[in-house]
Amino acid sequence: MTGGAGFIGSHYIRTLLGSPGADDLQITVLDKLTYAASPENLDEVRHLDGFRFVAGDICDEALVAELVAGHDQVVHFAAESHVDRSIHNSAEFTRTNVLGTQVLLDAALRHGPLSFVHVSTDEVYGSIATASSSETHPLSPNSPYAASKAASDLIALAYHRTHGLDVRVTRCSNNYGRRQFPEKVIPLFVTNLLDGKKVPLYGDGLHVRDWLHLDDHVQGIELVRTRGRAGEVYNIGGGTELSNRELTELLLEACGVPSTMVEYVADRKGHDRRYSVDWTKIHTELGYEPRKDFTVGLAETVAWYRDNRDWWEPLKARAERLAETC
Ligand code: NAD
């Protein structure tokens, strides 16, 4: 597993190793521990026999070859994941997301047979004004982040078509939940509001995103890992579409603060207006259904940040230092 010290990867591994049948699993996490990582995210599983952590880069061919050789599946989460950072400096996005994915695929090909789940994003489809993007929708990424993910998806699928490697791609919508680095909108806004600071809302605030709880994303990835078909793409949606303004209003309410805490700021460059994925395929083929009610999930998330300042305060300071150097 790559990127296991990040937001989604760590939740995935905590869920897997906490589930029935986990005694049969041996999972090695490869993670470079970039600014976005939190090794503490893995404290719950660190002591388990089935868990091993390796600090390293997915672009390191020798290390990746050695690790892949000892495993029968790869679940690939590692990425540079913050769109705003990709606008200021996209080099690391291209290196990690594109080159890193290709290094992993090469190792999987040489040391297989094994299956490879590549975790991607709805952002590869670009903005869609009405209806929803199905898996066959043309890729039209707009940010350097989205372009790097689209490139990695295409390389992954090419390894299936060219070499027959068992590659499965997932494309999910915006994730939310506990332990998300406080540069992304929900933890950024919640932690600002808990600190009595205003929240910066981009443009007119009418950009629309579909929200997917971490538990549901993990459910979808597990269905694809265990029962998905080689060479297929599966969209994973959450079923709650909101404009950023609507989301902000819910966060203000959850934190008990007035609308004067919102500061409208200049829009993000190339800001996609709306993402929406059609997840009929994973529903009909694999039985996926988002289970977490958004109101409940959001309340739990806000409560988690309220109760876990020790976790996010150092990360927030790190994020602010990084933003100053951008
Ligand atoms: P994250 O930024 O929280 O974590 C990324 C992890 O990858 C970190 O632990 C980091 O140290 C590691 N990493 C980065 N570069 C690496 C490298 N070169 N070698 C090894 N490890 C490296 O990201 P996340 O939000 O957990 O996202 C996980 C995956 O899901 C990504 O592929 C992302 O594109 C995708 N995704 C995320 C969302 C979302 O809402 N967060 C939505 C759609 C898709």
UniProtKB/TrEMBL annotation:
Reaction it catalyzes: dTDP-alpha-D-glucose = dTDP-4-dehydro-6-deoxy-alpha-D-glucose + H2O
Required cofactor(s): NAD(+)
PANTHER family: DTDP-D-GLUCOSE 4,6-DEHYDRATASE-RELATED (PTHR43000)
Record CDD domains: dTDP_GD_SDR_e
Family the entry assigns: Belongs to the NAD(P)-dependent epimerase/dehydratase family. dTDP-glucose dehydratase subfamily.
NCBIfam families listed in its UniProt record: dTDP_gluc_dehyt (TIGR01181)
Any one GO molecular-function label of the UniProt entry: dTDP-glucose 4,6-dehydratase activity
Enzyme class of the recorded protein, top EC level: lyase
Protein name from the UniProt record: dTDP-glucose 4,6-dehydratase
Domain of life, source organism: Bacteria
Domain NAD(P)-binding intervals: 2-300
Keywords: Lyase, NAD
Transmembrane segment boundaries: none
Biological process, per Gene Ontology: nucleotide-sugar metabolic process
EC numbers on record: 4.2.1.46
Alphabetical list of InterPro entries matching this protein: dTDP_Gluc_deHydtase, NAD(P)-bd_dom, NAD(P)-bd_dom_sf
Pfam families found in the cross-reference section: GDP_Man_Dehyd (PF16363)
